């Protein structure tokens, strides 16, 4: 099925997953975001990997109770990838046999226009989640300036000057996510675009939220989930790693332990090895053996304190 040339399978109706955890921290972020949206502003969730940007964006989208389209930022994006373009041709053939002895055939070959996700969302009042939007080149995102400010989508850049503008539906909502600008593969966003959205900076979750998430995702006991979180948070606070461990690392550890049925105990060699492998790979990207040995040494010291 198609909607203005866009596959309907691209349109989703977000639902809250059964293991999605809502704590005071998450509720506070979501309530503020919904207030900004109600006031007519786009929101921007910014934070390093593992801070839950995309999950929270989709949760906010589910609260809006409208169809959602998702775009993932890409360095190769052009403006046409956001608004649409001319793809293929439509052929119309007319056969005139009014006079029996004369057959008249007319054919028209017309370029076929296909709306992309931004255009579809703007026309129909859908929610647009633009994940990692700063991975797209700034010039591709310029089309968003008039959408967010004047509530007009300029399609003349792709269709031709005669086409003009599309008025943005009153229910259209935009939710952006991004990593900090010091991340690899991330472009600096234009000041003009940032000025048209409200940025909520996300950090690592508070301890209670991390425990609740790991418990929900892995089905470990609260006590065991807390032991995993304690190791994560202490390793993070030491600041000796290239990157601080995130909740993702804790979920990997906890889920693996649950599969293996291994106890969260410092005397269990399997638990120790899983923590070393997961946390060392998450906190050091360079693959430097000296850095990995340092991380493993720190993890072993933390084991004697908590596990």
TrEMBL record:
The keyword Metal-binding does not apply. SUPFAM superfamilies: P-loop containing nucleoside triphosphate hydrolases (SSF52540). Gene3D superfamilies: P-loop containing nucleotide triphosphate hydrolases. The keyword Nucleotide-binding applies. Pfam families: AAA_5. GO terms for biological process: gas vesicle organization. This is Gas vesicle protein GvpN. It comes from Desulfofarcimen acetoxidans (strain ATCC 49208 / DSM 771 / KCTC 5769 / VKM B-1644 / 5575).
């Amino acid at each position: 099925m198609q909607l203005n040339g866009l596959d309907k399978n691209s349109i989703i109706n977000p639902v809250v997953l059964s293991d999605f955890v809502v704590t005071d921290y998450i509720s506070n972020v979501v309530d503020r975001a919904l207030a900004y949206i109600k006031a007519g502003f786009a929101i921007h969730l910014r934070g390093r990997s593992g801070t839950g940007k995309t999950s929270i964006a989709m949760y906010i989208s589910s609260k809006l109770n409208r169809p959602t389209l998702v775009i993932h930022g890409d360095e190769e994006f052009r403006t046409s990838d956001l608004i649409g373009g001319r793809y293929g041709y439509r052929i119309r053939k007319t056969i005139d046999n009014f006079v029996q002895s004369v057959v008249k055939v007319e054919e028209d070959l017309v370029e076929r226009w296909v709306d992309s996700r931004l255009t579809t969302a703007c026309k129909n009042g859908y929610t647009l989640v633009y994940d990692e939007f700063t991975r797209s080149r700034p010039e591709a995102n310029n089309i968003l300036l008039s959408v967010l400010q004047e509530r007009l989508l300029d399609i003349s850049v792709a269709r031709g000057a005669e086409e003009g503008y599309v008025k943005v539906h009153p229910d259209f909502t935009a939710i952006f996510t991004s990593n900090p600008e010091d991340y690899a593969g991330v472009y600096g966003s234009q000041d003009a675009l940032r000025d048209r959205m409200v940025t909520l900076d996300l950090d690592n979750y508070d301890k209670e939220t991390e425990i609740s998430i790991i418990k929900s995702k892995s089905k470990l006991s609260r006590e065991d989930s807390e032991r995993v979180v304690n190791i994560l948070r202490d390793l993070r606070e030491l600041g000796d790693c290239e990157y601080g461990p995130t909740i993702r690392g804790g979920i990997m550890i906890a889920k693996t332990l649950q599969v293996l049925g291994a106890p969260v105990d410092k005397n269990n060699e399997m638990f120790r090895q899983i923590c070393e492998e997961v946390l060392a790979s998450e906190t050091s990207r360079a693959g430097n053996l000296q850095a990995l040995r340092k991380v493993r040494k720190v993890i072993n010291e933390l084991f004697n304190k908590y596990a």
